[in-house]
Amino acid sequence: MSEALMREVQHLTRAARMLAVVGAAAKLRSAGKVDAAIQEQIERGARMVLGDAAADLQMSDGATILTMIGMALAEAGELFRDPARTAGWQVQAPELLQVMGRASSHAFDRIFALAETRPLLRDALAGTFLDVGTGVGGIALRAADACPELRIDAIDIWEPALRLAAENIAASLHADRIRLRNLDVTALEPELRYTLAWLPTMFMNRAVVEAATARIAAATRSGGWLVAALYTTPDDPFGGIMASLRTLRGGGEITDPMELRELLRADGYVDVEVEVAPLATFVFGRRG
Which of 115, 169, 177, 199 would staple 122 via disulfide (CB 3.0–4.6 Å)? Predict the structure, then answer.
């Protein structure tokens, strides 16, 4: 092994540990009894990594920091453990599913923020919300928290996630407003039920996305909204590779938001918009 390669690998392994120690320091804020000597070393390590920003760690939104770090470490670990696995959603580890669920729940915060400047979308938050690919129920639970008048249909076909979703929903204050079902979106009943729907296209091949948007349109009331998401491809070349890997390993195919925009228009959605954010791009429109 060359010295140059060894230096680069050592640098990267150090970076991984640095991220872990920052996450550990954030977790310790809500921990119970902790070994004082271990805690001191973790906090010293975090201060070394963050410098002046270490003080901000104590005042920041710990949940957001932990979600970001947990997602990065979980995704990296899964890629390292099984780089040769076939494409498609295959995550079974409960801890990883829960981490991903917490991360995905922020998608509803974005929808809620979009509704603040779009009265017609705001009206949809008092109807019935279809959460496609609910996973462990992260988005459904966040929606129920944010919108007390909203009823939610949460559907998925991945049993390991559905078992956790059932537990998470039962333990919440919103079990009476969330209907959890093992249902493929391509088999969605064509009843005019929904005022808002969420579709994470990054986990679906093109044919499934096309069938899903048509099925959702047939089950959405006039004036109802569809918010479809795909991973954002950043300008950073390495970030672009990771976004592509994320889509391919998740079972997705569509990476161009313009393609998704045309699909929504073809299914009768109007006023279709595209909103780009660092992790996910939203393509959303209103049923005409």
Answer: 115
Instruction: Decide: 153 and 128 in contact? Cβ < 8 Å.
Output: yes
What is d(CA 6, CA 283) in angstroms, rounded to the nearest whole number? 43
3-state secondary structure of 230: strand
DSSP conformational letter for 83:
T
Cα–Cα–Cα angle for 245, 204, 84, rounded to 5 degrees: 40
With vertex at residue 43, the alpha carbon angle to CA 52 and CA 75, rounded to the nearest 5 degrees, is 90
Superfamily in which the 94-287 domain is placed by CATH? Vaccinia Virus protein VP39 (3.40.50.150)
Rounded CA-CA distance 143/110 in Å is 11
Half-sphere exposure (Cβ direction) of 135: Cα atoms closer than 13 Å:
27
251-269 pLDDT, tens digit per residue, is 999 999 999 999 999 999 9
Q: Where are the domains of the chain?
A: 3-81, 94-287
pLDDT tens-place string over residues 83-131:
988 877 777 778 778 878 888 888 999 999 999 999 999 999 999 999 9
Helix axes 62-81 and 94-104, enclosed angle (nearest 10) = 130
Name the burial class of residue 22, with classes exposed (0-12), middle (13-18) and buried (19+) by CB atoms within 10 angstroms of its CB: buried
- Of the candidates 134, 130, 140, 123, the one whose C-alpha atom is nearest the C-alpha of residue 190 is 130
pLDDT score of 108: 96
Q: Can you tell me whether residue 280 is helix, strand or coil?
A: strand
Residue 99: the pLDDT is 77
Identify the helix (H) or strand (E) that includes residue 109.
helix 106-115
